[in-house]
Amino acid sequence: MEYLTADLYIPSQPKESLPILVLVHGGAFQAGSKEMYKDWGEKFAQEGYFVMAVNYRLAKPDYASFPGVIEDLKQAMNWLVFNANKRDLDINKIGLIGDSAGAYLSSLFALSNHSFSYRICSVIGVYGLYDLAYECKNPIIVRDVNMNERLLGLPFYGNERAFYEASPIAYVQDAMAVATFDTSFYLIWGEKDTIVNPTQSELFYEALKKANIEVEMTKVEDKGHFWFNQLPEIAGGKVSDYPNNVLTPKIMDFLHRTVRQALNGHYSKRQIQILSKIGGDV
């Protein structure tokens, strides 16, 4: 068994059970690290969140990381549940934040995994990848190595169905059939992205909206990719840098509404509605 690592950012003087944010880095499924979220981790902790920036297994030429990478996120959640009492964490108030490949992983995890031990209240996806099949058919950039094929360990052509079924967009309708599902989404992307097709975010937004899943979005018209967090030898990426400094109030407001003010206990809004109807029929 290989153990994965995480960075924790903890409020200095917590006054209540702490809501939780899990930060999932990008890197084309093959690179990246938890340290990319250092600035955001410190900022969120200052705002009163218990923050975990995670590492996960990365794909290699001879190793497909899917679906094991989803298991890595499960293990991170299990650690939070196991340590909740000791660290005074509110495991019914969890938000996921990811960029690029991290947005894909966060969204897929929230839509396809429905635990009774904790509750994922929100996902913030930044210039994410939400339909692997669509991206393979409509690449905005032609790469020597297709990152989606590397993730699954399969060639796209001849395995189109497998790529779609490994995509967050494939789970939207199924998620809404689960009474405990109660996750809100906030999608952010750059209109000038030349790494991941911006249409990915637009189509995912429309799919969530059509399924009556709460979703908000912000388009940054003058930015592309690689600006949300810090990368070696790439300028920007701090919370104080543009456009993060403009997005920060919107992100904090979204988290306040969807995570910090989430219902107490392991209840979804739809469960409350069902119970209300049952009570009215008695």
Automatic annotation (TrEMBL):
PANTHER family: AB HYDROLASE SUPERFAMILY PROTEIN C4A8.06C, KYNURENINE FORMAMIDASE. Keywords: Hydrolase. This is Alpha/beta hydrolase. Residues 7-208 form the BD-FAE-like domain. The keyword Hydrolase applies. InterPro entries: AB_hydrolase_fold, BD-FAE-like_dom, GDXG_lipolytic_enzyme. Pfam families: BD-FAE (PF20434). GO terms for molecular function: hydrolase activity.
